[in-house]
Amino acid sequence: MRLDRFLSNLPALNRQAGRLALTSGRVKVDGQVVNAAQFEVNQFSRIELDNQLLQAGKAARYFMLHKPVGVVSATQHEEHRTVLDLLDEPDKTELHLAGRLDLNTSGLLIITNDGLWSRRLTEPRSRLGKVYRVHTEQPIEPHYAAVFAQGLYFAYEDLTTLPAELAILDSHSALLTLHEGRYHQVKRMFGHFQNKVIGLHRLSMGGIHLDPSLAPGQYRALTAEEIASC
Ligand code: URA
User: Fold this and answer.
1) Domain 3-55 homologous superfamily, CATH
2) Which of 9, 47, 140, 142 would staple 54 via disulfide (CB 3.0–4.6 Å)?
3) Do 57 and 113 meet the contact criterion of CB atoms below 8 Å apart?
4) What is the pLDDT of residue 75?
5) Ligand 1 — pocket residues by CB below 6 A?
6) Which CATH class is domain 62-228?
């Protein structure tokens, strides 16, 4: 929200008093004096007025998890263990998943409490590449690549998928780069050729690559470079 709105929501300040505090340089955000009424603040901002703390600002938290097969990408589930069960962190209810993986898909899953950041990562219009390693039941034929590059029509959503890149590794495995995340997208794309996906693993999302030192079920905090890369 805008900083002037944040200030005028305080019981002790009305709109005019909030604006005056701003223009007279009495408001600091993250330690810096801010005069601009339209300056954006959020739950992570530390906000002070006359050096008195108004909001401490929560710590933004970002993790990468190596999701194992058989663990559900949800925060709660009646039947299966969830990815949040794998995290040994306080206040887990504040965390959410930046994109999901199917129960039988493994690989990179990102978990955070920063909704704005995770939206950028997952919105189709941000078009970040997500790389999957795919194993199939039938041989993968070279002509799939042109079909995936052109886009496939998904009748249920009434849309054509964005161009995707296929790099064939061997007869039954390939790397597929998607720039969006539709429901069961990889399986449906190979399903177009009646070729069942029997193994699916996400290697990267944008500039964030699954750390090879993480065994299935392990996780770590993202580095500042990884956070800034998306
Ligand atoms: N596409 C799928 O079909 N499943 C996933 O888990 C991710 C992408």
Assistant:
1) RNA-binding S4 domain (3.10.290.10)
2) 47
3) no
4) 87
5) 101-102, 105, 184-187, 200
6) alpha beta
